[in-house]
Amino acid sequence: MAIIRVDHVDKSFPTRHGTIAIMQDITFEVKDADFLAIVGPSGCGKSTLLRLVQGLDHPTAGTISFRDQRVDTVAKGMAMVFQNFALFPWLTVNQNVAFGLEALGWDPERIAAQVERYVSVTGLDGFEEAYPREISGGMRQRVGLARALAVEPTVLLMDEPFSALDALTAEGLREEVLQLWRDPQLPPEAVVLVTHNIEEAIQLADRVIVLSRRPGHVLAEVPVDLPRPRDRKSAPFYDLTDRVYSLITEGGAPPSPPAAGGTVPPGRTL
Amino acid sequence: MTNEAPSAEVRSDRPAHPRASAPNLARDTRPFHRRSAFRSAVLYAGLPLAFGVYASVHDGLTVGSITGYFPLASVDLFYSFLRMVAAYALSLGFALAYGYYAATRRTGERVMIPVLDILQSVPILGFFPFAVAILAAATPGSFVGPNFASVFLIFTSMAWNMVFGVYESLKTLPSELKEAAETFRLRGMLLFRRVLFPATVNRLVYNTVLSWTAGWFFLVEAEIFTTNTSNALAGIGSYLSFAASAGNGAKFLAGIIVLVVLIAVLDFACWRPLSRWADRFRYDTAPAGEGGGIVTPGEHPGRIRRATSYVTRGVRSGVSRIRTPFVQLAAFTTRPGRPLKGPRRPIAYYAAAGAVLVFCWIMLIAIVVAVFGVFTSPIAAPVRHDIALVPEAMGASILRVAAAYTICLAISLPLAIVVARSSRAERYGMPAIEVVASFPATALFPVIIFVLVPYLTPNGAAILMLLTGMMWYLFFNILSGVRQLPPDLVEAARSYGLRGRQFYRRVLLPGIFPALITGSITAFGGGWNTLIVAEYLSLGKSQLSVIGIGQLIDIGNALGGAGNALMAAALLTLVATVVAINELLWKPLYRRAVERYRYD
Fold first, then answer.
1. Which residue of B has its CA nearest to A195?
2. How confident is the model over A150-166, as pLDDT tens digits?
3. pTM, rounded to two decimals
4. Which of A20, A100, A134 sits opposite B10 (nearest CB)?
């Protein structure tokens, strides 16, 4: 069954020179136990889409519903991980993780227990009292992740969560996110990942939604049925990457047959 | 002419979250630029008009009786304007020379920037009576002395922020640009014309506007002050002061009207076109003027570099809206990136500091008395009596400034938050606030002193005057603090459902803390400078006099040569107090602010 339903959504912005359409007629669903990735070139409205889904912003046309309820304010049951972490520099790691729980009005003991659990789950032990600027980028994003998981969301939204990290750190954190995702003890029933890194999308997700250039619309929905753990160097992985890449560069035209061989260098991002 | 603010464009990779990043959060913060010119014009016209209507209804003034004073007022205003121009020319030359030297010579920088910092934190106006007395004694019977003194005073209110503007824009010139100039072997005049001048001009113009605003305030205050003495300077300040003390409403109103007209003309004819022109010289993508983005700390070790990066960050965050007393010195002892430790200081610490301060006062006073007793004739008994009052007066002044600060905070904090966070309030409120802020409140001091005292009590009137001297520093700093809350933090707060009181406690107030501290430092600086007129003014039969350090300095000045000991004792006590408060209160707070509350 669908947890989130995005139904014929348009989004445009008024500017001094008229209206700019960011996305047009976007329709998709997030199902139970779904790890969904949204990829597309810069400016296609991926991040906007994620914000619409949480209700941080409103679509110009169309509807978004979460568990059959229309999203018109910031929806509870979803939590966001931000590209640039969005940690509060004046709060410690613990206080940052507790941030969302305080907003929910939990009592202090319950918050403390919850924070302890998720700090530990995300491997932040020993950093509880550190301030964000005192820890590395990878650790900061763990805090972002812990903060999101601590509110036990139904859906975890991730907005380019690995883009601000160096390649090695990002790789390590991706693995950990996968492990957390597969842990049945942990909350999110579904994950929506926005990224411009095609390999990342294919490595992590069960389905990839491919958006076009602005104004963004859905070019294709690509199921990823490779067995985990996925080997980036395997041929099927490669073919899939290539297919998605062609979809985007050719704006939906069928992929040209000879391209499948290996003309696309690995690690290609848009 | 392109009038598009880059911040208004849709960013390509993330065009969304207009709510969180609302256009008003990352907007040009310069006051006199690109605002609705029409609204400002209406306000400029409306201000004196409202006064006029009120006065004509209230006091039965006729248009003719007001316009009759225009020639006289215009002549006096012209004298004032000449002083402003002279002081500005001095400031500009000084800023370019000092700023360029400090930015390019390492040894120069090491000494010059701290010196400048001390200079700007001292309440210069306190020295004004001295300067007038000395220069008047040097040129007896002529107006040259007081004129020099007033030009110098205005210079001190204009120069510092311009110097920092030049210095910082040269220091923050991207190294790629410098290297590009080097690879193409630009030298001498060509280097100046193509690289150095364009690098400084934007900040220089921005600070020029601020300097003129501060300059008007000090000019009027200095002129009002000279009416305490035997040789009053001809100028708009003394004109207004005499008009008010004589109870001549028509004359006073005529003076206000010509002053508003001149300020409006300068705004429309000079500052707005100049700002638009200077906009072309921006080499960064940050919003114009001081409303820049976040500067990452430099990789270079060393205290000067670190201090520089703080200066920059401070200025970028709108910190030195007009001046940044002690901000740079505070940065010298700061180690970025280290956790903040050390327990909170107990009350006993502040009590002990206060006791030490009082002890210092008494020592200073004793030294002054001894020095004067030995080197000049014995101090007269009434002066002695007044000198004994100095500690008490200083205490009274501190309380008065603190009271005015509290009221300022209570007004400007909510006001700035509303203006920054609601585009409606911004659209209608900002032009009004800018017009009001550009008008030197000191011009209305005579009204406060001679008309409002019966309603407000002398202490109330003094605090009201202090308010006008402190308010805008606080307001504009808080405003830019709120505007520069990083949009992604605001969005994260929204995303996690934080609102209402929790939002203010957890996000907004910590987020604006550094701006609040700098605003407080500058506001206190403004307050100390306003004391000198706020506590004592005597004209004919009317008099305002409340116990305070400004009052004692003025009394000492009015006594002539016999009062020098009193003036010196009061002045030293004031300077010691200001330095102590900066050291013990503001520096630690500022350090705390930059350590914990900056974004990076």
1. B13
2. 999 999 999 999 998 99
3. 0.76
4. A20
